Structures are given as structure tokens and as C-alpha cells.
Amino acid sequence: MTELRKQTDKQTVLEVEDLHTYFEIKKWGFLHEGYVRAVDGVDLEIEEGESVSLVGESGCGKSSLAKTILGIHSPREGKIKFRGKILDFDDEEIMKSYQGKTGFVQQDPYSALPPFMSIQRILEEPMIVNGIKDRSERISRIERVMQELKLTPTGDYLGKFPHMLSGGQQQRVVLARSLVLNPDLLLADEPVSMLDASVRVEILELIEKIQKERDLAVIYITHDLSTVRYFSSRILVMYGGMIVEKSPVVKLLKNPAHPYTMALLEAISEPDAANAERLKEVPPGEPPSLMDPPAGCRFHPRCRYLIDEVCRTEIPPEFEISQERSVSCWLYREGRQPEDVEL
Ligand SMILES: Nc1ncnc2c1ncn2[C@@H]1O[C@H](COP(=O)(O)OP(=O)(O)OP(=O)(O)O)[C@@H](O)[C@H]1O
User: Fold this and answer.
1) Spatial CA neighbour of 188 closest among 210, 163, 165
2) Which of 73, 171, 313, 324 is most buried when burial is the number of CB atoms within 10 A of its CB?
3) 285 lies in some domain
4) Whose CA is nearest to atom 4 of ligand 1?
5) Ligand 1 pocket test, candidate residues 63, 68, 108, 220, most atoms within 8 A of CB
């Protein structure tokens, strides 16, 4: 389904259509047991300079979606379009050039950085791999991103190795590495969850600054709803491999539409950083098994608003509930609007 978004003159960077990513599970390493349906029919779009947050409980498929978008996992079904062109996952040249246009920042900066390479070598590597042969060009790009990321004076860092830096500095190096090829899209997967509380805000502010200055499209993945309002304009809520609500952040925080979103918000009644991590505790009940997901709406076993005749058997489609908002929940069938539904 085409996404409901504010009309702008910006170009669409990424379109994901009906994406499915499954992982095969084998018993004793060879007997087919089934599939984990980590991503199961996701549509999303993001345009130049836009920041979108993807939120949901641990295990709902956020990282699998990010890694499929990045070409690390191959989708079982569906399309990914980058700047209007469908990606061919089997074409190595296309994928290499695409990966140069997409940056990735993961949770744990230390494991993301090769321990025996100096910071200079780490930052030069993507440019060498992508054929930037002119050394002075590489050095000037490194200088520029290090300035942007406040890794200064640069001479203090270039000869060091990752273990000599703090967690926050390591994450800034990871960010710098993801930017040296001037990407159009950055995926930040829980970029601050393993850092000390004191540097979390600083890193999020840096990502926001880079996003604005470079007009970069950013997908920010988190289980921590309390951080999204600081720099995202839109939010996508993921549950059981699917996206269940899409909304501008402010509207969603003020008036959640999906019962799952509502439960997430209840977990952070006072949205501030001190409440981070609490999302994992709610809503009550277990997240669905992605090997054997419930029929119908995947949230129905935990839902307070279950409608017996449909929720147990039919997957809800995306219902448009207002401009720029959609929700996959049977409460909004037949044109019902949030004001008709009491959550
Ligand atoms: N390479 C893999 N092989 C098999 N199963 C996998 C693989 N990667 C992820 N999964 C499974 O896919 C499901 C979704 O995992 P994923 O890491 O995408 O969720 P997540 O929302 O990012 O969670 P978290 O925040 O804990 O990382 C989980 O059941 C996970 O065990």
C-alpha cells in the first residue's frame, strides 16, 4: 500500500513493498523444521532528509527489517526500490554500489569496529573498497566527517585503536565510517542502547545534526519510545513482523490508535530517558512466536479490545484513519475514526 505522507517536493529515497524475510530453522542442523517469519509483509517509504523511527518490542523483527533493507539478508518476497530502481539482490555490482549509499550504525560499537585496525584505516577502508584511489581525497573526507562528529583534534584519534576510545567515541567512529561515502540513507539500529546514559543524548543529537545538515534520510530503530520525539517526524510501530501503525510522532504520542501502541505508551507514562528499557515489560503476555504466529491479528491474544468474529481469523489491512496516519486494526473497520474508538 502506498504510504500516507505529507506531500513534499523531496524525492523518495527508499520504498519497501510487501517485504518478507524468513529464516529457515533446521533440527539437528539439517532437518527442515519451519521458518521464523521475522518480516512478514512490510511496506514503508522514506524521502530525502526525513527521519523515521521504527519501534517495537525485542524480537518483533526490527533488525531483520533493517538488515534486509541493507542487503545483508535477502527477502523471500517483496521489493526494495532505491531512488526509484528495484534492487536486484543477485547483482553484486548493484548491491555494492547500493551499500555505498546506505550507512549502518549498530548497537554495539566495539564489536562493529575491527580491533586491530587504526581509526584512520577503519575510516579509509570503505573508500578503498569502493574504488576511491586518490589518497588525498580519502584523507580530506576523513577530516570532514571527523569534524562533523566532533572527533577533534583529528590527530588525537587517527593513530589510535578502537579499545583506546570510550564507548561514545567508538560510536562516533562507527558513524564517521558510515558517512565517508556520503550515503543517502542511514539506518541506526539502537545506536545508543549500549552507551552510558551520559552520552546517549549527545549521540542522538549528533545524528539529528548530521541528518539536517546532509539532508539525510534516517531510519532510527529503537525499543525506547521516549527517545523518538527528539528527532523523528514519523513513527512506524512494528509487532510480530508487521507494521501495525504509521503516524506523525506528535499525533501518535498524543493519541495512539493501535491497542499495541497504546500499551507501549502506557509503559512510559512520563516519557523521559529514565523510563528507558521499560518497554520490554509491557503489554502483559508473551510476544507472538514468529515460527507459528497466531492466525488473524498477531496482537489478538494480548488485546483488550478483541473483536471475536474477525480478530482471531483475519489479518487486518491498513486502514487510513486520518491524513498521514494508518493503522492495521479491526477497530477501525468501515471508516471508523479514532474519535469513534475508545481506547
Ligand atoms: N539470522 C537469523 N536466523 C534465525 N532467526 C533469526 C535470525 N535473525 C533474527 N532471527 C529471529 O527473527 C526474529 C526477529 O529478530 P530481530 O532481531 O529482527 O528482532 P528485533 O525486533 O530487532 O529484536 P531486538 O531488539 O532484540 O534485536 C527473532 O525471533 C529472532 O530470533
Assistant:
1) 210
2) 171
3) yes
4) 23
5) 63
Dihedral, CA of residue 191, residue 196, residue 201 and residue 202, to nearest 10: -90
User: Is ipTM strictly over 0.90?
Assistant: yes
Q: What is the pLDDT of residue 18?
A: 97
Domain annotation covers residue 61: yes
Q: What is the mean pLDDT of the chain?
A: 90
Sheet of strand 242-248, all strands in order from the earlier edge strand to the far edge: 102-105, 185-189, 217-222, 51-55, 234-239, 242-248, 325-327, 319-322
List the residue whose alpha carbon is closest to atom 26 of ligand 1.
Answer: 58
Q: What is the pLDDT of residue 198?
A: 85
Show the domain range for 51.
Answer: 12-91+222-269+280-332
- Separation between Cα atoms, residue 36 and residue 187, nearest integer Å: 23
The lowest-confidence range among 60-69, 148-157, 163-172, 229-238 is 229-238
Residue 278 has pLDDT above 60, yes or no: no
What confidence score (pLDDT) does residue 157 get? 97
User: In this predicted structure, what is the pLDDT of residue 4?
Assistant: 58
> Which backbone phi and psi does 319 adopt, to 5 degrees?
-100, 135
Taking 80 as the threshold, does the pLDDT of residue 282 lie above it?
no
Let me know if residue 325 belongs to a domain: yes
Angstrom distance (rounded) from CA 102 to CA 91 = 17
Closest residue CA from atom 28 of ligand 1: 59
- Residue 5 pLDDT class (50, 70, 90 cuts): low
Atom of ligand 1 nearest to the CA of 65: 18
63 lines ligand 1 (CB under 6 A): yes
* Helix 135-148 / helix 167-179 crossing angle, nearest 10 deg: 130
Degrees (nearest 5) of the Cα angle 242, 40, 309?
A: 65
Indicate whether 254 belongs to any domain: yes
**Whose grid coordinates read 548497537?**
107
pLDDT (0 to 100) of residue 277: 47
Q: How many structural domains is the chain composed of?
A: 1
Question: What mean pLDDT is predicted for residues 162-172?
Answer: 96
